[in-house]
Backbone:
Protein backbone atom coordinates (compact mmCIF):
# COMPACT_ATOMS: atom_id res chain seq x y z
CA UNK A 1 0.00 0.00 0.00
CA UNK A 2 1.52 3.26 -0.98
CA UNK A 3 2.05 6.01 1.62
CA UNK A 4 -0.18 8.95 0.90
CA UNK A 5 0.44 10.89 4.12
CA UNK A 6 2.28 13.71 2.29
CA UNK A 7 -0.27 14.09 -0.48
CA UNK A 8 -2.53 17.14 -0.32
CA UNK A 9 -5.94 16.54 1.11
CA UNK A 10 -8.91 17.48 -1.04
CA UNK A 11 -12.32 18.31 0.28
CA UNK A 12 -14.94 15.84 -0.73
CA UNK A 13 -17.24 16.89 -3.54
CA UNK A 14 -19.95 17.51 -0.99
CA UNK A 15 -17.64 20.11 0.70
CA UNK A 16 -17.88 22.64 -2.21
CA UNK A 17 -20.75 25.12 -1.78
CA UNK A 18 -22.18 27.04 -4.71
CA UNK A 19 -22.79 30.76 -4.29
CA UNK A 20 -26.46 31.38 -3.59
CA UNK A 21 -28.58 33.66 -5.77
CA UNK A 22 -28.83 36.14 -2.90
CA UNK A 23 -25.05 36.29 -2.50
CA UNK A 24 -24.60 36.73 -6.26
CA UNK A 25 -27.03 39.64 -6.16
CA UNK A 26 -25.29 41.27 -3.18
CA UNK A 27 -21.88 40.94 -4.84
CA UNK A 28 -23.21 42.36 -8.10
CA UNK A 29 -24.76 45.31 -6.26
CA UNK A 30 -21.54 45.88 -4.33
CA UNK A 31 -19.48 45.96 -7.53
CA UNK A 32 -21.95 48.29 -9.28
CA UNK A 33 -21.94 50.59 -6.25
CA UNK A 34 -18.11 50.76 -6.12
CA UNK A 35 -17.96 51.41 -9.85
CA UNK A 36 -20.71 54.05 -9.69
CA UNK A 37 -18.94 56.05 -6.99
CA UNK A 38 -15.59 55.77 -8.77
CA UNK A 39 -17.15 57.09 -12.01
CA UNK A 40 -18.79 59.90 -10.02
CA UNK A 41 -15.41 60.81 -8.54
CA UNK A 42 -13.97 60.95 -12.07
CA UNK A 43 -16.76 63.27 -13.19
CA UNK A 44 -18.41 60.69 -15.45
CA UNK A 45 -21.89 61.46 -14.19
CA UNK A 46 -24.06 59.71 -16.80
CA UNK A 47 -22.02 56.51 -16.57
CA UNK A 48 -22.23 56.56 -12.77
CA UNK A 49 -26.02 57.03 -12.95
CA UNK A 50 -26.31 53.96 -15.17
CA UNK A 51 -24.63 51.90 -12.45
CA UNK A 52 -26.89 53.24 -9.71
CA UNK A 53 -30.04 52.75 -11.81
CA UNK A 54 -29.05 49.12 -12.45
CA UNK A 55 -28.87 48.67 -8.67
CA UNK A 56 -32.33 50.26 -8.23
CA UNK A 57 -33.74 47.76 -10.74
CA UNK A 58 -32.55 44.99 -8.42
CA UNK A 59 -33.13 46.74 -5.07
CA UNK A 60 -35.33 49.82 -5.33
CA UNK A 61 -34.59 51.04 -1.79
CA UNK A 62 -30.82 50.56 -1.86
CA UNK A 63 -29.40 53.45 0.17
CA UNK A 64 -26.02 53.53 -1.65
CA UNK A 65 -27.73 53.81 -5.04
CA UNK A 66 -30.23 56.44 -3.90
CA UNK A 67 -27.48 58.59 -2.38
CA UNK A 68 -25.36 58.04 -5.48
CA UNK A 69 -28.20 59.19 -7.75
CA UNK A 70 -28.72 62.20 -5.44
CA UNK A 71 -25.01 63.07 -5.61
CA UNK A 72 -25.02 62.71 -9.41
CA UNK A 73 -28.06 65.00 -9.76
CA UNK A 74 -26.44 67.49 -7.37
CA UNK A 75 -23.27 67.51 -9.50
CA UNK A 76 -25.45 68.32 -12.53
CA UNK A 77 -26.99 71.16 -10.47
CA UNK A 78 -30.39 69.43 -10.74
CA UNK A 79 -31.05 70.08 -7.06
CA UNK A 80 -34.79 69.35 -7.11
CA UNK A 81 -34.22 65.87 -8.54
CA UNK A 82 -31.41 65.30 -6.03
CA UNK A 83 -33.81 66.19 -3.19
CA UNK A 84 -36.21 63.45 -4.40
CA UNK A 85 -33.47 60.78 -4.23
CA UNK A 86 -32.13 61.89 -0.82
CA UNK A 87 -35.63 62.02 0.67
CA UNK A 88 -36.43 58.56 -0.71
CA UNK A 89 -33.28 57.25 0.96
CA UNK A 90 -34.11 58.92 4.29
CA UNK A 91 -37.61 57.42 4.32
CA UNK A 92 -36.09 53.98 4.85
CA UNK A 93 -32.69 54.99 6.29
CA UNK A 94 -33.50 58.06 8.49
CA UNK A 95 -29.99 58.52 9.89
CA UNK A 96 -28.02 58.24 6.65
CA UNK A 97 -25.40 60.98 7.03
CA UNK A 98 -24.61 61.18 3.32
CA UNK A 99 -28.26 61.69 2.42
CA UNK A 100 -28.69 64.30 5.17
CA UNK A 101 -25.59 66.19 4.04
CA UNK A 102 -26.61 66.08 0.38
CA UNK A 103 -30.19 67.12 1.12
CA UNK A 104 -29.07 70.10 3.21
CA UNK A 105 -26.65 71.18 0.50
CA UNK A 106 -29.48 71.04 -2.07
CA UNK A 107 -31.74 73.18 0.10
CA UNK A 108 -28.90 75.67 0.45
CA UNK A 109 -28.42 75.76 -3.34
CA UNK A 110 -32.19 76.34 -3.73
CA UNK A 111 -31.98 79.24 -1.22
CA UNK A 112 -34.15 77.29 1.23
CA UNK A 113 -31.85 78.14 4.12
CA UNK A 114 -34.24 77.37 6.98
CA UNK A 115 -34.82 73.86 5.61
CA UNK A 116 -31.07 73.41 5.16
CA UNK A 117 -30.46 74.46 8.77
CA UNK A 118 -33.05 71.94 10.01
CA UNK A 119 -31.36 69.08 8.11
CA UNK A 120 -27.82 70.06 9.13
CA UNK A 121 -28.89 70.22 12.78
CA UNK A 122 -30.30 66.70 12.38
CA UNK A 123 -26.91 65.68 10.95
CA UNK A 124 -25.14 67.12 14.01
CA UNK A 125 -27.12 64.73 16.24
CA UNK A 126 -24.92 62.01 14.73
CA UNK A 127 -21.70 64.03 14.43
CA UNK A 128 -21.64 67.25 16.49
CA UNK A 129 -18.02 68.13 15.80
CA UNK A 130 -18.09 68.10 11.99
CA UNK A 131 -16.47 71.43 11.09
CA UNK A 132 -17.70 71.32 7.48
CA UNK A 133 -21.31 71.01 8.63
CA UNK A 134 -20.89 73.64 11.35
CA UNK A 135 -19.56 76.22 8.88
CA UNK A 136 -22.42 75.41 6.50
CA UNK A 137 -24.98 75.96 9.27
CA UNK A 138 -23.30 79.24 10.20
CA UNK A 139 -23.40 80.28 6.52
CA UNK A 140 -27.12 79.44 6.36
CA UNK A 141 -27.87 81.44 9.52
CA UNK A 142 -25.97 84.33 7.94
CA UNK A 143 -28.15 84.07 4.83
CA UNK A 144 -31.34 84.27 6.92
CA UNK A 145 -29.76 87.21 8.81
CA UNK A 146 -29.62 85.51 12.20
CA UNK A 147 -26.49 87.34 13.32
CA UNK A 148 -26.30 85.88 16.82
CA UNK A 149 -26.56 82.18 15.87
CA UNK A 150 -24.31 82.57 12.84
CA UNK A 151 -21.55 84.29 14.84
CA UNK A 152 -21.87 81.81 17.69
CA UNK A 153 -21.30 78.82 15.37
CA UNK A 154 -18.43 80.44 13.45
CA UNK A 155 -16.69 81.20 16.77
CA UNK A 156 -17.31 77.60 17.90
CA UNK A 157 -15.48 76.43 14.76
CA UNK A 158 -12.54 78.74 15.55
CA UNK A 159 -12.36 77.23 19.04
CA UNK A 160 -12.09 73.79 17.46
CA UNK A 161 -9.71 74.85 14.68
CA UNK A 162 -7.88 78.12 15.12
CA UNK A 163 -7.74 80.18 11.90
CA UNK A 164 -10.22 77.98 10.02
CA UNK A 165 -10.48 79.79 6.68
CA UNK A 166 -14.22 79.18 6.18
CA UNK A 167 -15.05 80.54 9.64
CA UNK A 168 -12.82 83.61 9.21
CA UNK A 169 -14.31 84.35 5.79
CA UNK A 170 -17.83 83.76 7.11
CA UNK A 171 -17.29 86.11 10.07
CA UNK A 172 -15.92 88.73 7.68
CA UNK A 173 -19.03 88.48 5.49
CA UNK A 174 -21.35 88.37 8.52
CA UNK A 175 -20.05 91.59 10.06
CA UNK A 176 -19.89 93.27 6.64
CA UNK A 177 -23.53 92.33 5.94
CA UNK A 178 -24.53 93.95 9.25
CA UNK A 179 -22.41 97.04 8.49
CA UNK A 180 -19.91 96.30 11.23
CA UNK A 181 -17.01 97.11 8.94
CA UNK A 182 -14.31 97.43 11.61
CA UNK A 183 -15.15 93.98 12.97
CA UNK A 184 -15.24 92.57 9.44
CA UNK A 185 -11.77 94.02 8.84
CA UNK A 186 -10.33 92.02 11.76
CA UNK A 187 -11.27 88.71 10.15
CA UNK A 188 -10.32 89.69 6.60
CA UNK A 189 -6.96 91.03 7.85
CA UNK A 190 -6.32 87.71 9.63
CA UNK A 191 -7.00 85.89 6.35
CA UNK A 192 -4.60 88.26 4.58
CA UNK A 193 -1.86 87.58 7.16
CA UNK A 194 -2.33 83.82 6.86
CA UNK A 195 -2.26 83.81 3.04
CA UNK A 196 -0.18 86.90 2.26
CA UNK A 197 1.97 85.14 -0.34
CA UNK A 198 -0.92 83.25 -1.93
CA UNK A 199 -3.93 85.38 -1.10
CA UNK A 200 -7.33 84.90 -2.75
CA UNK A 201 -8.37 87.97 -4.74
CA UNK A 202 -11.74 87.96 -2.93
CA UNK A 203 -9.96 88.56 0.37
CA UNK A 204 -8.24 91.61 -1.15
CA UNK A 205 -11.44 93.06 -2.62
CA UNK A 206 -13.28 92.43 0.68
CA UNK A 207 -10.58 94.32 2.58
CA UNK A 208 -10.78 97.12 0.04
CA UNK A 209 -14.57 97.26 0.35
CA UNK A 210 -14.40 97.51 4.15
CA UNK A 211 -12.11 100.54 3.83
CA UNK A 212 -14.38 101.97 1.14
CA UNK A 213 -17.36 101.73 3.52
CA UNK A 214 -15.31 103.22 6.37
CA UNK A 215 -14.25 106.03 4.01
CA UNK A 216 -10.58 105.19 4.63
CA UNK A 217 -10.17 105.35 0.88
CA UNK A 218 -6.39 105.47 0.70
CA UNK A 219 -6.11 102.18 2.61
CA UNK A 220 -8.72 100.74 0.28
CA UNK A 221 -6.64 101.58 -2.81
CA UNK A 222 -3.76 99.53 -1.34
CA UNK A 223 -5.83 96.33 -1.39
CA UNK A 224 -7.58 97.02 -4.70
CA UNK A 225 -4.17 97.66 -6.26
CA UNK A 226 -2.96 94.28 -4.93
CA UNK A 227 -6.07 92.66 -6.45
CA UNK A 228 -5.38 94.29 -9.83
CA UNK A 229 -1.84 92.91 -9.77
CA UNK A 230 -3.44 89.44 -9.68
CA UNK A 231 -6.25 90.18 -12.17
CA UNK A 232 -5.85 93.45 -14.11
CA UNK A 233 -9.45 93.35 -15.42
CA UNK A 234 -11.23 92.22 -12.26
CA UNK A 235 -14.50 94.19 -12.18
CA UNK A 236 -14.74 94.44 -8.39
CA UNK A 237 -11.16 95.65 -8.04
CA UNK A 238 -11.56 98.22 -10.85
CA UNK A 239 -14.87 99.43 -9.40
CA UNK A 240 -13.43 99.60 -5.88
CA UNK A 241 -10.37 101.53 -7.01
CA UNK A 242 -12.47 104.00 -9.03
CA UNK A 243 -14.89 104.48 -6.13
CA UNK A 244 -12.05 105.09 -3.67
CA UNK A 245 -10.59 107.80 -5.91
CA UNK A 246 -14.11 109.21 -6.26
CA UNK A 247 -14.34 109.36 -2.45
CA UNK A 248 -10.98 111.16 -2.36
CA UNK A 249 -12.28 113.67 -4.97
CA UNK A 250 -9.51 112.48 -7.30
CA UNK A 251 -11.83 112.39 -10.31
CA UNK A 252 -9.16 112.17 -13.01
CA UNK A 253 -7.74 109.06 -11.35
CA UNK A 254 -11.21 107.55 -10.92
CA UNK A 255 -11.89 108.02 -14.65
CA UNK A 256 -8.95 105.77 -15.54
CA UNK A 257 -10.72 102.88 -13.83
CA UNK A 258 -14.29 103.74 -14.93
CA UNK A 259 -13.01 103.77 -18.52
CA UNK A 260 -11.26 100.40 -18.09
CA UNK A 261 -14.58 98.88 -17.02
CA UNK A 262 -16.39 100.53 -19.95
CA UNK A 263 -13.90 99.08 -22.44
CA UNK A 264 -15.05 95.62 -21.36
CA UNK A 265 -18.68 96.54 -20.66
CA UNK A 266 -19.64 99.64 -22.70
CA UNK A 267 -23.36 99.36 -21.89
CA UNK A 268 -23.04 99.35 -18.11
CA UNK A 269 -25.29 102.28 -17.23
CA UNK A 270 -24.13 102.47 -13.60
CA UNK A 271 -20.54 102.97 -14.74
CA UNK A 272 -21.60 105.40 -17.48
CA UNK A 273 -23.30 107.60 -14.86
CA UNK A 274 -20.26 107.36 -12.54
CA UNK A 275 -18.01 108.45 -15.42
CA UNK A 276 -20.49 111.25 -16.15
CA UNK A 277 -20.27 112.36 -12.51
CA UNK A 278 -16.47 112.42 -12.72
CA UNK A 279 -16.51 114.62 -15.85
CA UNK A 280 -19.14 116.88 -14.23
CA UNK A 281 -16.95 117.33 -11.16
CA UNK A 282 -14.05 118.16 -13.49
CA UNK A 283 -16.37 120.74 -15.13
CA UNK A 284 -16.15 118.99 -18.50
CA UNK A 285 -19.91 119.32 -18.95
CA UNK A 286 -20.03 118.30 -22.63
CA UNK A 287 -18.39 114.94 -21.96
CA UNK A 288 -20.47 114.48 -18.81
CA UNK A 289 -23.63 115.02 -20.86
CA UNK A 290 -22.41 112.48 -23.40
CA UNK A 291 -22.00 109.79 -20.73
CA UNK A 292 -25.33 110.56 -19.06
CA UNK A 293 -27.06 110.41 -22.47
CA UNK A 294 -25.45 107.04 -23.24
CA UNK A 295 -26.80 105.72 -19.92
CA UNK A 296 -30.30 107.03 -20.72
CA UNK A 297 -30.18 105.44 -24.18
CA UNK A 298 -29.89 102.08 -22.44
CA UNK A 299 -32.82 102.70 -20.05
CA UNK A 300 -34.19 105.27 -17.63
CA UNK A 301 -31.66 106.10 -14.93
CA UNK A 302 -32.32 108.39 -11.96
CA UNK A 303 -28.65 109.30 -11.53
CA UNK A 304 -28.23 110.21 -15.19
CA UNK A 305 -31.28 112.53 -15.01
CA UNK A 306 -29.94 114.00 -11.77
CA UNK A 307 -26.52 114.51 -13.36
CA UNK A 308 -28.04 116.37 -16.33
CA UNK A 309 -30.15 118.50 -13.96
CA UNK A 310 -27.03 119.45 -12.00
CA UNK A 311 -25.24 120.40 -15.22
CA UNK A 312 -28.17 122.68 -16.08
CA UNK A 313 -27.90 124.20 -12.61
CA UNK A 314 -24.14 124.78 -13.02
CA UNK A 315 -24.74 126.34 -16.44
CA UNK A 316 -27.34 128.70 -14.97
CA UNK A 317 -30.34 126.95 -16.56
CA UNK A 318 -32.15 126.88 -13.23
CA UNK A 319 -35.71 126.45 -14.52
CA UNK A 320 -34.72 123.46 -16.68
CA UNK A 321 -32.95 121.99 -13.69
CA UNK A 322 -36.03 122.47 -11.47
CA UNK A 323 -38.25 120.80 -14.06
CA UNK A 324 -35.98 117.71 -14.23
CA UNK A 325 -35.60 117.51 -10.45
CA UNK A 326 -39.38 117.79 -9.89
CA UNK A 327 -39.83 114.96 -12.39
CA UNK A 328 -37.53 112.80 -10.28
CA UNK A 329 -39.37 113.83 -7.13
CA UNK A 330 -42.58 112.21 -8.42
CA UNK A 331 -40.83 108.82 -8.45
CA UNK A 332 -38.69 109.37 -5.34
CA UNK A 333 -40.63 111.69 -2.98
CA UNK A 334 -38.45 110.93 0.07
CA UNK A 335 -35.08 111.82 -1.47
CA UNK A 336 -33.89 114.82 0.57
CA UNK A 337 -31.22 115.74 -1.96
CA UNK A 338 -33.80 116.48 -4.65
CA UNK A 339 -35.54 118.97 -2.35
CA UNK A 340 -32.30 120.78 -1.44
CA UNK A 341 -31.18 120.98 -5.09
CA UNK A 342 -34.57 122.44 -6.10
CA UNK A 343 -34.40 124.89 -3.17
CA UNK A 344 -30.92 126.02 -4.23
CA UNK A 345 -32.15 126.59 -7.81
CA UNK A 346 -35.01 128.76 -6.49
CA UNK A 347 -32.55 130.72 -4.31
CA UNK A 348 -30.32 131.30 -7.35
CA UNK A 349 -33.43 132.56 -9.18
CA UNK A 350 -34.00 134.92 -6.23
CA UNK A 351 -37.24 133.21 -5.17
CA UNK A 352 -36.67 132.56 -1.44
CA UNK A 353 -40.34 131.80 -0.76
CA UNK A 354 -40.41 128.94 -3.28
CA UNK A 355 -37.18 127.61 -1.74
CA UNK A 356 -38.79 127.63 1.74
CA UNK A 357 -41.94 126.04 0.31
CA UNK A 358 -40.13 123.05 -1.25
CA UNK A 359 -38.08 122.39 1.91
CA UNK A 360 -41.22 122.63 4.08
CA UNK A 361 -42.82 120.09 1.74
CA UNK A 362 -40.05 117.64 2.63
CA UNK A 363 -40.47 118.23 6.36
CA UNK A 364 -44.20 117.44 6.12
CA UNK A 365 -43.16 113.87 5.26
CA UNK A 366 -41.99 113.51 8.89
CA UNK A 367 -38.42 112.64 7.87
CA UNK A 368 -35.69 114.34 9.87
CA UNK A 369 -32.67 115.54 7.91
CA UNK A 370 -30.12 117.90 9.47
CA UNK A 371 -29.04 119.51 6.20
CA UNK A 372 -32.64 120.29 5.16
CA UNK A 373 -33.50 121.62 8.66
CA UNK A 374 -30.42 123.87 8.78
CA UNK A 375 -31.04 125.26 5.29
CA UNK A 376 -34.69 125.96 6.10
CA UNK A 377 -33.75 127.70 9.36
CA UNK A 378 -31.24 129.90 7.53
CA UNK A 379 -33.78 130.86 4.89
CA UNK A 380 -36.50 131.65 7.43
CA UNK A 381 -34.12 133.72 9.55
CA UNK A 382 -33.00 135.60 6.43
CA UNK A 383 -29.33 134.52 6.71
CA UNK A 384 -29.23 133.28 3.14
Residues:
Amino acid sequence: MSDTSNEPEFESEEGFREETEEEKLLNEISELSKRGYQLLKEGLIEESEECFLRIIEKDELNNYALVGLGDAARKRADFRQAVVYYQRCLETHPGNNYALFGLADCYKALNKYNQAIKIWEEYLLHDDSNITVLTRIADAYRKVRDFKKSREIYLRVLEMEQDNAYALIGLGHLHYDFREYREALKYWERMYELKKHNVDIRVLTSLGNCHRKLRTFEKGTFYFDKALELEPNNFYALFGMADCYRGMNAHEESLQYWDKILKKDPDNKVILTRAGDAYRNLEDFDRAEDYYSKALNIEFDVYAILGLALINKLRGNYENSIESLRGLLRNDPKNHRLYTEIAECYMLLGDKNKAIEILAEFQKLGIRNTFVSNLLDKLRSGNR
